Each structure stands twice: as structure tokens, then as C-alpha cells.
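Appendix C: a fully annotated inverse folding record. The material below is reproduced so that readers can follow the format used throughout the book. The structure is listed first as C-alpha cells, followed by the designed sequence.
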């Protein structure tokens, strides 16, 4: 009996303390004008529920509180907006007081001149310098030939092998960028660079705790090594008479370029390009292979498009701009893959002053310094925009009546992805060589995670044979 009373007392005590803590935390954030919602536990907020339940958590909260609600996730009080009108307003109006709100570890490791760490005129300057490197004419004249050469070689000798397509698309995205940026081919420099880059990526997604065994610390060390390698490359270029035809030369050539950058800015710009184009391009490519495998009719149509291109060429002729522009169905496959897999769940912003929201959430006030999660995932599955939203149907993108103004897979407004066309060109060239050279089947048994990132935790293994 005594034992029972003690246990009952402990349980009651824990319950009362928990309720008091939760209530106290709610009171702290109770402010006139804030959207409804719950703030969870002190410090941790609702991060565990968010990461565990993923999109389910977001949908539940929306059902309870509407399209704009408050929460406390990933270490910060946050307003989640799932309202298309509010989302568009936030993306289009950075100058009114919305700066990027990415986690501290990301900003620390990517560098203080990284595009996500700057705003106002500095952002315009860094973005201008970047857009000059990835413009359609640059893709046509300089980048596409390099991408083609890279893909031809990267996708050779896969027949009669079991490969992990996730590993291959990861390598593809990084090595292809290294070639475009500094002509770095698979060799000693890329061998030293690649593992450091992977550590850097993991570090940006970790908690900012700088202890020797943490991913954050390793990411930071990896940044130092990468900066040192890039600095050596810059110094070598300065002491050389040659001007290689690559992005680094363009960035260093201040006279011909109205966006002159310092060496430090050039290094952060290169890290930005590598980082921003890495996971997006590799994951979209992997998921396209997955969906094509599961939808033979789509694969047949895609292959037809690429075989038609090959028919008018000699075997060694590269893909040129006109070929790329003719890949209408391929582009539809890439859009549909990005939509259905939701490669990007949304983007993060932070308020620099108190802001009032309009749209479906009129009158709500966001305090200064709060994060806003412009959560665009659910729009991708809206049956009013995309009939039978869970079906992989690239043909929908060829229908002229499709309303794409809510398609935010490449973001929107002043931070809309400057690498969109380059990314699509890379994925299209990858698919070109893959479907014209090979057929494939899944080995089976691999798991795919959809949230918070799309990934195959143990790889996605396929058996490849020549077509
Ligand atoms: C399928 C491929 C890609 C997808 C889905 C994608 C998606 C996005 C999204 C959603 C944003 C907006 C972020 C925000 O508003 O905070 C963005 C920004 C950005 N992307 Fe991409 N991206 C892709 C490929 C690339 C590539 C290849 C590059 C390389 C140049 C690149 C460079 C950037 C940069 C630098 C930004 C920041 C722009 C700024 O803050 O002004 N992206 N991307």
C-alpha cells in the first residue's frame, strides 16, 4: 500500500510539474496579436513532435489553429505559414523586414559572406555576381559542354553492376560543380575535397555545440580545410599567366565583372554554389530514377525524347543548348519529381522588426526576431492545383492551364533560386545519358525517408545493364 502511495505521489508530482512547465511556457509567449498555437516545452519547444511526426504534425496544427500558427521548433519561437498568399507576401517583401532565418550552425559553417547570411545591398551584390556565372548564355556557352563531358564519363561502365544510385547522384552533383567552378577533375584535389565537403554538409545540419566530438565541430574544421584549399587555388591562379575558362576565373577577373568580390567573398561564394546545388540536384536525380523505375510508361516517353535527340547525332556528339531546350518532357519529369517528393519543404525567414500579416491570417503580428517557416510542402499535394496529387504524372506540367504561381520548389521573390536553370540542365543531362545507355531494376529492401530530408538511409541499390 505504502509503495502504491509513493508511486502515485511521484506520478502526480511529475504530471503537475509538467503541466505547470507547459503552462508557464505558453504564458511566456502569450502576446496580443500572435497567431494561435502551442509552444511546447521550455528550450526544446515542439521540436521532437515536429521531427517525429513531420508533415503530420504540421497538418494537425493547421486543423486546430488554421494556416498560420505559432510553435517553437529547432530552437526558436516560430510562426509557421501554410497560407499561399502570406507565403508569397513574405517571399516578395524581404525589404519590409524579413531576412533569411537559417540555423546558426549553417550560417557559421557556410561563412559570413554566404548569400543566406547577407541582405540588402550586400545580398544584391553577391547575388549579381552569382547570376553572372549561371546565366542562360553562360550555361549555353560554357557550362553545358562541361556538364556533358562530366556526365559522359561519370555514367560510364555502370553496366552489369549493382550501384547505390544515391551515392552516385551525390558524387555527380558535387564533382560536376567542382569541374564547373575550378576545372577540378576527379583526382588528388577532389579526393581531398570531397570528404571535407561531406563533413561540412553534416555540420550545417547539426546543433551549434562546439565540442571536439560534435558534427558541428567537425563541420567547422572541414570549412577551415576547404577554405585553405580554395585559398591555395586562388594564390596559384594569381601567380599564373593562364586564365582557365571556369567560374573561379570569372569571379577573380574583377575588371570584366562589375560585381568585384574580395578573396574572402569569392571563397564563400564558391562554398555557396557547391552547397546550394548539392543536395537539391542529387536528391532530385535520385528520386527521378526511383519514379521512372516505378512508372514504365513515363520512362518510355522520356526515353523516346532522348533517343530522338541521339538519332540526329553521332555517338560522341555532346548535348547542346538546342537539345536541352527541346527536352520538354524531361523538364516535366523534373518538376513532377520535385513536387511529389517535395525535395524542399519550405524556406526560413526571420523578422527584423515587428510585422503584421495580411492574407488569410489578417491582423496577426509577428514579434521582432521570430522565425517564419514558409512551409510550402502542402501546396504540392493540393488537389485543386494538382488533380490526383499523389500520382506521378509529368504530363500535368505540359498542360498550359496548370496554375504554377504556387509552385515554390525553387523559392520565390528576391531569393528565388538563381541556380534553377543550371540545376535542371544538370539533371536533364544526367537523365539523358542514364536512360539512353542503361535499363535498371531495384535490388529491393531499401528504405526511403521523406522527412525532414528526402534520403535513403542505407542507399538505394539498383542493378544496371546496358540498354
Ligand atoms: C533542383 C535543384 C534546385 C532546387 C530545388 C533549388 C531550390 C532552391 C530554393 C527553394 C531556394 C530558396 C531559398 C530561400 O528562399 O531561402 C534556393 C536558393 C538558392 N539556390 Fe537553389 N535549388 C536548386 C539548384 C541550385 C543550384 C544548382 C545552385 C547553384 C548555383 C543553386 C543556388 C542557390 C542559391 C545561391 C540560392 C540562394 C539565393 C539567394 O539567397 O538569393 N541552387 N534554391
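Designed amino acids, in order:
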Amino acid at each position: 500500500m505504502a509503495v502504491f502511495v509513493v508511486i502515485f505521489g511521484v506520478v502526480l508530482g511529475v504530471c503537475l510539474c509538467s503541466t505547470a512547465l507547459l503552462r508557464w511556457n505558453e504564458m511566456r509567449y502569450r502576446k496580443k496579436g500572435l497567431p494561435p498555437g502551442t509552444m511546447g516545452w521550455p528550450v526544446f519547444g515542439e521540436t521532437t513532435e515536429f521531427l517525429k511526426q513531420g508533415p503530420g504534425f504540421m497538418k494537425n496544427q493547421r486543423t486546430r489553429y488554421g494556416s498560420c500558427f505559432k510553435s517553437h521548433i529547432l530552437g526558436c519561437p516560430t510562426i509557421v505559414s501554410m497560407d499561399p498568399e502570406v507565403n508569397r507576401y513574405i517571399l516578395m517583401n524581404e525589404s519590409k523586414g524579413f531576412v533569411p532565418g537559417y540555423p546558426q550552425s549553417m550560417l557559421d559553417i557556410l561563412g559570413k559572406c554566404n548569400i543566406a547570411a547577407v541582405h540588402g545591398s550586400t545580398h544584391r551584390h553577391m547575388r549579381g555576381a552569382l547570376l553572372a556565372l549561371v546565366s542562360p548564355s553562360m550555361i549555353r556557352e560554357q557550362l553545358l559542354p562541361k556538364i556533358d563531358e562530366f556526365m559522359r564519363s561519370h555514367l560510364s561502365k555502370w553496366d552489369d553492376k549493382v550501384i547505390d544510385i544515391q551515392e552516385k547522384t551525390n558524387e555527380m552533383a558535387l564533382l560536376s560543380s567542382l569541374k564547373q567552378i575550378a576545372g577540378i577533375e576527379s583526382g588528388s584535389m577532389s579526393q581531398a575535397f570531397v570528404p571535407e565537403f561531406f563533413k561540412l554538409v553534416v555540420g550545417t545540419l547539426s546543433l551549434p555545440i562546439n565540442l571536439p566530438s560534435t558534427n558541428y565541430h567537425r563541420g567547422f574544421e572541414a570549412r577551415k580545410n576547404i577554405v585553405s584549399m580554395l585559398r591555395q587555388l586562388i594564390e596559384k591562379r594569381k601567380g599564373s599567366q593562364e586564365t582557365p575558362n571556369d567560374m573561379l576565373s570569372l569571379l577573380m577577373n574583377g575588371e570584366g565583372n562589375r560585381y568585384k568580390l574580395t578573396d574572402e567573398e569569392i571563397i564563400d561564394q564558391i562554398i555557396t554554389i557547391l552547397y546550394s546545388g548539392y543536395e537539391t540536384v542529387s536528391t532530385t536525380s535520385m528520386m527521378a530514377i526511383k519514379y521512372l523505375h516505378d512508372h514504365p510508361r513515363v520512362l518510355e516517353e522520356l526515353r523516346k525524347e532522348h533517343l530522338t535527340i541521339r538519332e540526329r547525332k553521332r555517338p560522341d556528339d555532346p548535348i547542346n543548348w538546342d537539345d536541352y531546350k527541346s527536352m520538354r518532357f524531361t523538364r516535366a519529369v523534373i518538376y513532377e519529381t520535385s513536387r511529389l517528393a517535395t525535395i524542399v519543404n519550405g524556406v526560413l525567414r526571420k523578422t527584423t522588426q515587428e510585422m503584421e500579416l495580411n492574407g488569410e491570417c489578417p491582423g496577426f503580428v509577428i514579434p521582432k526576431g521570430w522565425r517564419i517557416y514558409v512551409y510550402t510542402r502542402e501546396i504540392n499535394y493540393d488537389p485543386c492545383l494538382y488533380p490526383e496529387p499523389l500520382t506521378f504524372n509529368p504530363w500535368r506540367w505540359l498542360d498550359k492551364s496548370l496554375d504554377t504561381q504556387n509552385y515554390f520548389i525553387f523559392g520565390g521573390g528576391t531569393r528565388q533560386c538563381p541556380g534553377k536553370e543550371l540545376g535542371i540542365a544538370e539533371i536533364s543531362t544526367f537523365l539523358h545519358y542514364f536512360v539512353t545507355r542503361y535499363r535498371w531494376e531495384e535490388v529491393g529492401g531499401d528504405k526511403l525517408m521523406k522527412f525532414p530530408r528526402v534520403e535513403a538511409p542505407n542507399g538505394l541499390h539498383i542493378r544496371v545493364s546496358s540498354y
